[in-house]
Amino acid sequence: IMKRLIYTALIAATGIFGSCINNDIPTAKIEADITAFQVEGQVGNAVISRTNRTITVELNETVNIANVAVTEFAVEAEDGITEVKTQLKTGDKISLLSPYTVTLTTYQDYEWTITATQTISRSVTVENQVGSAVFDPAEKTVKVYVDMSHPLNNIKVTGMKLGQDGSTIDPDFTTVHDFTSPVEFTVKYEGRSEKWKVSVLHVDGAITGESDPWAKFANLYGIYSGSDSEVTFEYRVKGASSWSTAPAGSVTASGGDASCKLPGLTPVTTYEYRLALGEVKGETSEFTTETADQLLGMSFDEWHSVKSGSKDV
User: Fold this and answer.
1) DSSP 64
2) Are 256 and 145 in contact (CB under 8 A)?
3) How far apart are CA 143 and CA 129, in angstroms?
4) How many other C-beta atoms can be found within 10 angstroms of the C-beta atom of residue 142?
5) Looking only at Cα atoms, what is the longest distance across the chain?
6) What pTM, to 2 d.p., does this model score?
7) b/e for 190-220, b at 16 or more Cβ within 10 A?
8) Local structure of 180: helix, strand or coil
9) Is 247 in contact with 286 (CB distance < 8 Å)?
10) Which residues contact 17 (CB under 8 A, 6 or more apart)?
């Protein structure tokens, strides 16, 4: 009986003291990184950002971006010891049509995003064409311009490439001649298909094209029908009352294609611009210049001299 009483008391005491014990030891925080990544058909090295947990790769145009083979994939925990678990491995095939998320797990989960870029060479040519075809890959549209005298219901397409090398186009573009309204073509490549709309339009004078702004200059583009010598670009700060003309040496015009590298711009400023052909003006478009990045120490505000031997440096 005495032993039983002592045993019961010990159990009770253990329960009492045990209920007061808390696990205050925090879970270890061990970050994980992707240290190497490569896919089949990759151009150059992958750009890996440990800070942003992102990877960017460039693919050549023969790669099926919806079925990309991973040829190298390496991960590592910051302590070099902890096991890193992930759903991806070398040899897997993934779709990079949209950003692909990889989760690395140690004691916590760390999400990485893999993004691919792919430049595809596209072209459409027709008889009596003015300038180059204008492509919008996001909307999957193409605009081709011809002289006003050429009827849109009698267009002869001399070449068309809307997809990757080896892709097919339906219908056969050599059989399509009526472009009084946009014509839809289906492009197929390795089991994937996408639809493009091709429009043929008349050009009379100047058509303002796209822009590619940087911090202190911008590349401007347009299409025109007329004399090369009359082509220029006009620009102004948005809201200003008067237009300025691009420096003559900055404008190139040939065969209906016009371009300009417009210098002397102010960073983080919105400009309006238009293509001009003599007195004929294209539609007004706009762009905003980028921020001018400054290299560390280039302001000279924190420069000072220090002794090095007997000379100041």
Assistant:
1) -
2) yes
3) 11
4) 23
5) 118
6) 0.74
7) eeeeeebebbbeebebbbbbebebeeebbeb
8) coil
9) no
10) none
Coil, strand or helix at 250: helix
Q: Which residue has the tokens 């309204």?
A: 181
User: Is 146 exposed, middle or buried (CB count within 10 Å of its CB: 0-12, 13-18, 19+)?
Assistant: buried
313 residues of the chain, pLDDT tens digit each: 444 444 444 444 455 444 555 656 666 789 999 999 999 999 999 999 999 999 999 999 989 999 999 999 999 999 999 999 999 999 999 999 999 999 999 999 999 999 999 999 999 999 999 999 999 999 999 999 999 999 999 999 999 999 998 899 999 999 999 999 999 999 999 888 999 999 999 998 999 999 999 999 999 999 999 999 999 999 999 999 999 999 989 999 999 999 999 999 999 999 999 999 999 999 999 999 999 876 555 554 444 444 444 444 3
- Whose tokens are 């505000």? That residue is 301
Do 145 and 203 contact (CB within 8 A), yes or no?
yes
The DSSP bridge pattern shows strands 311-312 and 307-308 to be antiparallel
Instruction: Extract the tokens encoding 100.
Output: 């692909």
Partners of 271 in the β-ladder? 237, 287
Question: In the structure, how many helices (H) and strands (E) does the chain have?
Answer: 1, 26
